[in-house]
């Protein structure tokens, strides 16, 4: 008899602290819980991610010596092999345990149940690739290292494919059985005898979609720990033995926000770009509506905005955003489109026609009461299933105040003091009626009133009893944005904002703003985790630089210089109508002597300093975006600039301001985003169905604690 046929060896035991564990999809949701549990137990963990770089790096920061984050699409065999090799180089030993968790996103339309007719062969093929082919390829990638070590463990974690089929009458049992059978085949193939495979399969862990963010409490860590602790080794002879003692995961696990890395900190992974779409009329160029093919006639039609939001969602942008104003002058109404729909109303309509993209609107703290705003935004948060955001502003013009029973706006400092108190009351109201209070006990108890809280706020500007007359969302409060660029605006953002729409004409101005905000955040919050910064960005994109410049010239040529001069005069608060177009810009008062909107005035001063333009050239710079950064060129040229801003810490993303709609937006999505993806800078699918999840923001602590 050949010496190769021997009795099965005793299963090899390898302590967790001596193992290298690869968790596919290990940066978010269930995968993050698994990664953190292994790390807490002393193992070395390779956190695989495809597009969740921020969440992955946040985990690595907690365990810098025992964790490494590596980007790879688990459906790509060569990417898997490269990841495994990189992991071995990093830790100096092969992967010994594989947790097959990244089973792609099996749901259609964020887990909506489609009809059979609505499911395409391509979608089903993608499901199969994720449920069987990707795990098999991952197992094949780690097998050589397991053979070398003499120890192997494979844990297959099923997500919504196994827990709740996409279509109720589709039976995926065969797919589940196929994966288990293939895994056992690999157990037999591991050789030599004595190498073992540990298998855990789906149906044990939870009942919600894997894309759901961890803080919602959907993950059952106790069941996960018990499942892994009671799982078995499968030896080559088919005998099963219990082996793994796994610590229970902490119930309090919750991801924390990752605010982005700075160049020079040693992180090897590329920072992802956040992109927001600022929707305004037919585009941000003042003359865009004059073009023969403009969408000016569609502005009263909600379908126009819905289609733009759907286009942005197709491009996987983080959010759409509407600014707002409370007045219109005759001259502005004549010059072109201004405000139209009330933003919350319009976003509520858009929420019913989109599934993942965030919905952000502007609310003026100078005119709204906190209770009214909290109820409107709370409603939008419910309607959109966690995609709402609020941009708190203080308004700019006395004409707006005169529509709200005031003769003029309060002083700048008073407006920002009111805004800070406004935000404080908003958050108190959103927490005053926790969703856990809703019991729906048909015996007579709809709400547990012990959980309701009167906030009894008495402040300088507001007196509010509370509670809010609606429960908060299970997804937490809307994301808090801020857009002020003045010193008072920056202080407000440093103290309260989670994301900022900033104004920066160039990279230097953006860098100075980011540095200043970081310093103010440390002083205000005692933390380096400043808000995400997304400066406005106007782009003209072409296959060549000349084509891009031609697109810019075509819009500039439609611009009436008289209207442009009047608009400039509004921002400068002086008569500019007689300024010579081809002469230099006259001297302007220094910022400290200017009494109007300081942020925009600062931008104009910077443009003049940078470009030394003629009046006509200044009008061209301001015509689209009003002094925000303008990039003109090929997709590669624009991607180069975006990477510079992101990697230097000047920005975390951009608030896109297409000069014309929908054309400029289509150009960016079809030309620039593919280039960003090619460089590993932009997502290939949404990480989450909530705005917080896609921005990498945690649920505010007060809400998270209220959930228990």
Set out the fold topology.
Layout: E1 20-23, H1 29-40, E2 44-49, H2 53-62, E3 67-71, H3 77-91, E4 97-100, H4 121-149, E5 153-156, H5 160-163, H6 173-189, E6 197-199, H7 221-229, E7 232-234, E8 240-242, E9 274-278, H8 302-314, E10 319-322, H9 330-335, H10 343-351, E11 358-364, H11 370-383, E12 388-393, H12 398-401, H13 412-430, E13 438-441, E14 445-447, E15 457-458, E16 463-464, E17 479-482, H14 487-496, E18 499-502, H15 507-525, E19 532-541, H16 545-556, H17 561-572, H18 598-611, H19 615-623, E20 629-633, H20 635-647, E21 653-656, H21 663-678, H22 691-695, H23 701-707
Parallel strand pairs: 1-2, 1-4, 2-3, 4-5, 9-10, 9-21, 10-11, 11-12, 12-17, 17-18, 18-19, 19-20, 19-21
Antiparallel strand pairs: 6-7, 7-8, 13-14, 15-16
Helix pairs in contact: 3-4, 4-6, 10-11, 11-13, 13-14, 14-15, 17-19, 20-21
């Amino acid at each position: 008899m050949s010496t190769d046929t021997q009795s099965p060896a005793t299963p090899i035991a390898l302590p967790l602290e001596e193992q290298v564990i690869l968790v596919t999809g290990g940066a978010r949701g269930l995968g993050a819980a698994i990664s953190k549990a292994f790390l807490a137990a002393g193992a070395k963990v390779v956190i695989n991610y495809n597009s969740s770089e921020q969440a992955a790096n946040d985990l690595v920061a907690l365990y810098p010596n025992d964790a490494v984050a590596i980007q790879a699409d688990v459906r790509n065999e060569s990417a898997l092999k490269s990841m495994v090799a990189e992991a071995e180089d990093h830790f100096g030993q092969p992967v010994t345990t594989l947790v097959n968790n990244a089973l792609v996103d099996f749901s259609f339309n964020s887990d909506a149940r489609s009809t059979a007719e609505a499911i395409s062969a391509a979608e089903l093929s993608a499901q199969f690739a994720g449920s069987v082919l990707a795990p098999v390829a991952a197992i094949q990638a780690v097998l050589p290292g397991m053979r070398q070590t003499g120890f192997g463990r494979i844990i297959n974690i099923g997500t919504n494919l196994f827990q709740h089929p996409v279509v109720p009458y589709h039976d995926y049992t065969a797919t589940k059985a196929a994966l288990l059978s293939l895994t056992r085949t690999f157990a037999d193939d591991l050789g030599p005898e004595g190498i073992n495979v540990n298998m855990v399969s789906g149906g044990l862990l939870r009942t919600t979609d894997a894309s759901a963010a961890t803080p919602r409490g959907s993950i059952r860590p106790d069941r996960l720990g018990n499942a892994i602790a009671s799982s078995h080794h499968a030896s080559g002879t088919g005998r099963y033995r219990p082996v793994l003692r796994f610590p229970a995961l902490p119930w309090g696990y919750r991801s924390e926000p990752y605010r982005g890395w700075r160049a020079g900190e040693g992180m090897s992974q590329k920072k992802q770009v956040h992109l927001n779409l600022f929707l305004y009329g037919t585009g941000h160029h003042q003359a865009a509506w004059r073009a023969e093919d403009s969408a000016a006639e569609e502005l009263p039609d909600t379908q126009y905005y819905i289609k733009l939001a759907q286009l942005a969602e197709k491009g996987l942008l983080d959010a759409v955003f509407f600014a707002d104003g409370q007045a219109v002058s005759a001259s502005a109404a004549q010059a072109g489109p201004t405000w139209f729909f009330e933003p919350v109303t319009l976003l509520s309509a858009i929420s019913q026609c989109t599934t993942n993209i965030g919905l952000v609107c502007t609310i003026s703290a100078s005119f709204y009461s906190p209770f009214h705003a909290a109820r409107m935004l709370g409603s939008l948060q419910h309607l959109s299933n966690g995609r709402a955001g609020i941009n708190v502003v203080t308004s700019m013009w006395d004409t707006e105040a005169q529509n709200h029973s005031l003769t003029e706006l309060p002083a700048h400092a008073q407006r920002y003091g009111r805004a800070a108190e406004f935000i404080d009351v908003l958050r108190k109201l959103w927490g005053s009626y926790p969703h856990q209070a809703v019991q729906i006990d048909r015996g007579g108890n709809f709400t547990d009133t012990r959980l309701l809280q009167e906030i009894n706020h008495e402040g300088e500007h507001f007196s509010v009893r509370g509670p809010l007359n609606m429960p908060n969302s299970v997804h937490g409060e809307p994301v808090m944005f801020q857009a002020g660029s003045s010193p008072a605006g920056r202080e407000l953002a440093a103290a309260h904002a989670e994301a900022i729409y900033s104004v920066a004409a160039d990279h230097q101005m953006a860098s100075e703003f980011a540095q200043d905000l970081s310093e103010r955040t440390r002083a205000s919050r005692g933390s380096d985790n400043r808000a995400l910064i997304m400066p406005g960005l106007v782009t003209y994109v072409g296959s060549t630089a000349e084509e891009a410049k031609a697109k810019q010239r075509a819009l500039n040529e439609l611009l009436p210089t008289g209207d442009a001069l009047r608009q400039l005069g509004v921002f400068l608060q002086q008569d500019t109508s007689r300024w010579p177009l081809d002469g230099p810009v006259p001297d302007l008062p220094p910022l400290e002597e200017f009494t109007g909107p300081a942020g925009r005035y600062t931008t104009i001063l910077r443009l003049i300093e940078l470009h030394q333009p003629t009046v006509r050239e200044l009008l061209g710079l301001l015509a689209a975006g009003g002094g925000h950064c303008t990039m003109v060129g090929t997709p590669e040229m624009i991607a180069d600039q975006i990477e510079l801003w992101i990697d230097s810490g000047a920005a975390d993303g951009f608030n896109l301001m297409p000069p014309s709609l929908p054309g400029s937006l289509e150009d960016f999505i079809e030309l620039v985003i593919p280039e960003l993806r090619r460089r590993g800078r932009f997502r290939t699918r949404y990480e989450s169905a909530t705005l917080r999840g896609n921005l990498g923001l945690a649920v505010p602590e007060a809400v998270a604690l209220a959930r228990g």
